[in-house]
Write a structure and sequence with these properties.
The chain is α/β, with parallel strands linked by helices. Helices cover about 40% and strands about 20% of the residues. An eight-stranded mixed beta sheet has the order 13-12-11-7-10-9-8-14. A six-stranded parallel beta sheet has the order 3-2-1-4-5-6, sandwiched between helices. Helix 4 links the parallel strand 4 and strand 5.
């Protein structure tokens, strides 16, 4: 029986506890939060053996094999480091760390201690995303990607998490190097990083505060971001983050030499794009039929998955956790290659560095080039 613990008992911890319950061969031996009431409420609502308000007590008394870290990002590094040093495998919610150097240190420590570590990029393990990965690996694109486009939107309202962030000038998100962006965009960046071949892509970032937020008196929170990523071999990617564009997309497109693919996370669909064209007017009639057939096929897949009771909002998290536990028990590779975790952090570092130059009011050409090369 794999013994699991959760550190940080806020909203996202509920999702972790729910998905862990779905996995056979494991049990939650303890939950921990520096606010004892937070730990207790999670303990009372889920099948958890004990709750703690001190991490060292959790590690000593519950002796978990795996620790899930669901605390604010600024605490990830120190907590993960302690857990690894105490012999635990570690699942870290996104963003993995605040910078690439911290990510590199944690991965090196995990390797040194013979432990596994992973990042909570669970969107990459949803049903349609896994089907996309299988097609790409089978050669459907006709080689590596020529171009990718990742859209990851976030709707800012005046209630809940967003309301608290906008209304509290001391909110923990404001202390992050990338603020709101740092807490959200790693999912969209990780989709691109998975398919990059270079260790040093060039990154050009442009971000700004939307008119909507400016009207509310907000000047710090950048909620519109456009990024161009390019590799030496000519492959490119666009990343878009927006709180204002509608529809609010969570979409990933990848185009190869022969064909392309469109993943729509919100609709849980995967569409194949045929690279070759039909002759004459057939191009206006056959592709719409093929597209309609594919949408119906996605509907059928989703219905079958729903009837199998595996079609839920956090199915990607369940699959990632299950895959991570399997890598722990069987000694298999971690489900997300460490290279992808590091590259995601590296690209984010480059984005935030460029945004900081603009925020500081310093001319970019006096401080750094208009693009940043992501170095090893």
């Amino acid at each position: 029986m794999l013994k699991v613990a959760i550190v940080g008992c806020g909203k996202i911890a509920d999702s972790h506890a729910s998905q862990i319950q779905r996995i056979q061969g494991c049990e939650i031996v303890g939950v921990c939060d520096k606010e004892s009431l937070m730990a207790r409420q999670l303990y009372e609502r889920f099948p958890v053996k004990r709750y703690f308000s001190d991490l060292t007590e959790l590690l000593s008394e519950a002796s978990p094999d795996v620790v899930h870290i669901t605390t604010p990002p600024e605490t990830h590094y120190d907590i993960a480091k302690l857990c690894l040093e105490r012999g635990c495998h570690v699942y870290v919610e996104k963003p993995f760390t605040l910078c690439e150097e911290d990510a590199r240190r944690l991965i090196a420590l995990a390797n040194d201690r013979g432990r596994k570590i992973t990042a909570g990029h669970d969107d990459q393990f949803r049903h349609a995303a896994r089907r996309m990965r299988t097609l790409v690996q089978s050669g459907f694109l006709g080689g590596g990607p020529v171009h990718m486009e990742s859209h990851y939107c976030y709707e800012l309202g005046r209630s809940g998490y967003a309301g608290a962030l906008l209304g509290d000038k001391r909110h923990w998100v404001r202390r992050l190097p990338g603020k709101l962006l740092q807490n959200v965009i790693s999912h969209g960046i990780a989709r691109i990083a998975e398919h990059l071949t270079s260790e040093s892509p060039e990154v050009v970032a442009y971000g700004f505060v939307s008119p909507f937020l400016k009207d509310l008196g907000e000047t710090e929170i950048i909620d519109e971001l456009r990024v161009i990523i390019s590799e030496a071999d000519g492959a490119t990617a666009y990343f878009t983050f927006s709180s204002q564009m509608r529809p609010s997309l969570h979409q990933f497109c990848i185009y190869g030499l022969k064909n392309g693919l469109i993943l729509d996370q919100d609709h849980e669909t995967l569409i194949k794009l045929r690279g070759a064209r039909y002759n004459s007017y057939l191009e206006h009639f056959i592709p719409p039929v093929i597209m309609a057939k594919q949408h119906l096929g996605n509907l059928a897949i989703n219905l079958r998955t729903f009837l199998a009771r595996d079609f839920h909002m956090k199915s990607g998290m369940k699959h990632l956790i299950e895959s991570f536990y399997r890598s722990v028990v069987e000694g298999a590779p971690a489900p997300i290659p460490y290279r992808e975790i590091l590259l995601t952090a590296r690209i984010m570092d480059a984005i935030f560095a460029q945004l900081e130059v603009k925020r500081s009011g310093v001319q970019a050409h006096d401080q750094m080039p208009l693009h940043a090369t992501v170095s090893n």
